[in-house]
Design goal:
The protein is α+β, with helices and mostly antiparallel strands and 263 residues long. The chain has ten helices and twelve strands. The radius of gyration is 22 Å and the shape is globular.
Length: 263
């Protein structure tokens, strides 16, 4: 199959997958016919069928002879939602409902930015791990973590593949007291795209967290990339009128009660 046709069919697959996941076709009578889709994407029906076949293989659509194409019930997996103000506290619960794939584990001199963040001496060894977390068997996050060597020596690669890093750190007597988190966006590199099953350059949620122990020592530098269709951050805020008309704060600070409706 010519590379250009592979690229076109994959592009169509990604576009249709995003539409289906976001409910674009709901209320529109279902997925358009092959002729209409081939015309929209300006490809042959052969190329379109490759994209539809990939959608079927991944469980987004199903087909019935003589009846047409249907959306599968599992097409919209609910995204894992984490309260940004309680992200660290929720690490254990997230690890309990997700799986992990350990891609790399070893020791190396700390990169300059990691050494500064963790308050380590230049060239100090750190334990570096690369993991992919899975929700319902599908990858949703790519995690690169650095911890000081003395802490990293308290667990093995086998243990890290089974338990969350936070649990292993607590087992070693290291209690995280506070952290600094920066949330942004980043385009998927080829390596990360392959691990998360997205297209190179796809937008990802980016979180960099530096965690500190009660003594103020840096204990973890985490660089996490998330698929936004499978993982979201949220923060519930309320107005603080006594501070001014445009002042807002997390609801826990305002003392307000939050009522959620579960769909």
């Amino acid at each position: 199959m010519p590379p250009s046709q592979v690229a076109k069919s994959h592009h169509i697959y990604l576009a249709l997958r995003e539409r289906i996941s976001n409910g674009f076709y709901e209320g529109r009578g279902g997925l358009p016919g092959e002729q209409a889709l081939a015309g929209e994407f300006q490809v042959s029906r052969v190329t379109l069928r490759r994209a539809l076949s990939a959608l079927k293989d991944d469980g987004y659509i199903s087909t019935r002879r003589g009846a047409g194409t249907f959306f599968s019930e599992r097409r919209k997996p609910e995204a894992l939602q984490v309260d940004l103000t309680r992200a660290i506290a929720q690490l254990k619960s997230v690890s309990d409902i997700t799986g992990v794939r350990l891609l790399d584990f070893g020791y190396e001199p700390a990169p300059a930015n990691v050494a500064r963040a963790l308050k380590l001496a230049e060239g100090a060894l750190v334990q570096r791990s690369v993991r992919v977390r899975l929700l319902d068997g599908q990858p949703f996050s790519h995690l690169v973590a650095y911890v000081p060597e003395v802490l990293g020596r308290t667990y093995t690669d086998v243990e890290l593949a089974e338990y969350s890093l936070s649990r292993l750190m607590e087992r070693a007597g290291c209690i995280v007291d506070h952290a600094i988190q920066d949330v942004s966006a980043e385009a998927a590199s080829p390596q990360v795209a392959a691990a998360l099953g997205v297209e190179v350059g796809a937008p990802l949620l980016s979180l960099i967290r530096v965690a500190f122990s009660q003594s103020g020592a840096g204990v973890e530098y985490l660089r996490a990339l998330y698929r936004p269709d499978r993982y979201t951050f949220r923060m519930d805020v309320g107005r603080v009128i006594e501070r001014g008309p445009d002042e807002w704060a997390p609801l826990e600070e305002t003392g307000a009660r939050l009522f959620r409706t579960v769909p």
